[in-house]
Write a structure and sequence with these properties.
Number of strands: 17
Catalytic activity: (sulfur carrier)-H + L-cysteine = (sulfur carrier)-SH + L-alanine
Strand order of the largest sheet: 4-10-9-8-7-5-6
EC number: 2.8.1.7
Strand content: 15-25%
InterPro entries: Aminotrans_V_dom (IPR000192), Aminotrans_V_PyrdxlP_BS (IPR020578), Cys_dSase_SufS (IPR010970), PyrdxlP-dep_Trfase (IPR015424), PyrdxlP-dep_Trfase_major (IPR015421), PyrdxlP-dep_Trfase_small (IPR015422)
CATH architecture of the largest domain: 3-Layer(aba) Sandwich
Structural class: alpha/beta
GO molecular function: cysteine desulfurase activity; pyridoxal phosphate binding
Largest sheet: 7 strands, mixed
CATH superfamily of the largest domain: Type I PLP-dependent aspartate aminotransferase-like (Major domain)
Bound molecules: ligand 7TS
CATH class of the largest domain: Alpha Beta
Radius of gyration: 22 Å
Family: Belongs to the class-V pyridoxal-phosphate-dependent aminotransferase family. Csd subfamily.
Number of helices: 14
Helix content: 25-40%
Length: 405
């Protein structure tokens, strides 16, 4: 398909809104993406036509809803190239997926074991592992980063040992945009017999992870960052690992048989899907996957690369502006500060001009501590953004700088 930005923007009704009397410039895609009309329509269609609980009714409506839910699982399986559909677990988001795995590892770790996290993580991929270490007596070790916002792989190599039981790292950093060398890290982790979880929250809107090629043990992501509704997510896990981990939550639908003496658990994926799931939005996650594929991931990447280059060059025209995150491999995220001005003040002024960016620590306080800053202004672009919008932001930042200095 050819990439026509006008048509693409027309797919996202929110983009034609005015905010504070100005055309919306939405550069907070790292926090959540906007939703195309096909996704919005698919939610209503579900409730209008096939709403019923799944995996339990013999009645036709329940069958239709179950079939649509399982068809969505299958689309996601194909999208990430999982070997089996039962390796695709529906969750409420990345945070849920990571907690599921960290909780499961509590039964596998003992004092002296080590968990390796990277310095570039979102709090969602730090705190569950700290909680796990507190519970089990295992030790949390941190893979350090350099000034550019890249992980120092020689240090990673040194930290790995037979004590390492699991390594956890994001595919793309939300605060800096760094694309981490996860294939290298996966292979190295496996060489010492450790499992590895990839936090793909920021990756799934920019690239198409191939979990079999990567050979990762777990890959967690959120639907809302890939043009699907909030409250959806996926935990991919290799069959053998998912069979090894205990269930995360107990309840309906995750059992084979319950007596007061003993309960046996359902097979994958149901073992990890207790209770009534977010059926409508889970189905619509499949619609979002279809939408991404209709645009084409190569087209998305090409547009975002241009935006990153143009945005970087234009922002650097501003005197006193520093970009945090200058890794060689980077996605369309620009985190920056202006000397002597608090990021929050810039964010507030440019919001009045219709521009949505995130300011603050981006739930990645250790990264801010590394640079010794309170936070940054983060512009995160999606394929529906334009160079003209970047021009609007640059002018707004210049204006804010004048007002604040
Ligand atoms: N991991 C990474 C790398 C993230 O960027 C986020 C959310 C999460 C995990 C958690 O995802 P959730 O859907 O479970 O909340 N990141 C951001 C952000 O950068 N701004 O707002 C949320």
């Amino acid at each position: 398909m050819s990439f026509n930005i006008k048509d693409i923007r027309a797919d996202f009704p929110i983009l034609s809104q005015k905010i504070n009397g100005k055309p919306l410039v939405y550069f907070d895609n790292g926090a959540t993406s906007q939703k195309p009309q096909v996704v919005i329509d698919a939610i209503s269609k579900y409730y209008q036509e096939i709403n019923a609980n799944i995996h339990r009714g013999v009645h036709t409506l329940s069958q239709l809803a179950t079939d649509a839910y399982e068809a969505s699982r299958n689309k996601i399986k194909n999208h990430i190239n999982a070997k089996f559909a039962h390796e695709v677990i529906f969750t409420s988001g990345t945070t849920h997926g990571i907690n599921l795995v960290a909780n499961g590892f509590a039964s596998l770790l003992k004092p002296g074991d080590e968990v390796l996290v990277s310095a570039l993580e979102h709090h969602s991929n730090i705190v569950p592992w700290q909680m796990l270490c507190e519970r089990t007596g295992a030790t949390l070790k941190v893979i350090p980063m350099n000034e550019n916002g890249e992980l120092i792989l020689s240090e990673f190599d040194k930290l790995l040992s037979e004590k390492t039981k699991i390594v956890t790292v994001n595919h793309i950093s939300n605060a800096l945009g760094t694309i981490n060398p996860i294939k290298y890290m996966i292979d190295k982790a496996h060489q010492v017999g450790a499992a590895i979880l990839i936090d793909g929250a920021q990756a799934v809107s920019h690239l198409k992870p191939n979990v079999q090629e990567l050979d990762c043990d777990f890959y967690a992501f959120s639907g809302h960052k890939m043009f699907a509704p909030t409250g959806t997510g996926i935990l991919y896990g290799k069959e053998a690992w998912l069979n090894k981990l205990p269930p995360y939550q107990g309840g309906g639908e995750m059992i084979k048989e319950v007596t007061f003496e003993k309960t046996t658990y359902a097979d994958l994926p149901h073992k990890f899907e207790a209770g009534t799931p977010n059926i409508a939005d889970g189905i619509v996650l499949g619609t979002a996957v279809d939408y991404i594929n209709s645009i084409g991931i190569e087209n998305i990447q090409e547009q975002e690369k241009e935006l990153l280059e143009y945005g970087t060059q234009r922002l650097l025209e501003i005197e006193g502006l520093r970009i945090f995150g200058t890794a060689a491999a980077k996605t369309s995220v620009i985190s920056f500060n202006i000397e002597g001005i608090h990021p929050y003040d810039i964010g507030t002024i440019i919001d009045k001009l219709g521009i949505a960016v995130r300011t603050g620590h981006h739930c990645a306080q250790p990264i801010m501590n590394f640079y010794n800053i309170p936070g940054t202004i983060r512009a995160s672009f999606a394929f529906y953004n334009t160079k003209e919008e970047i021009d609007v932001m640059v002018e707004a930042v210049k204006k804010a700088k004048l007002m604040l200095s």
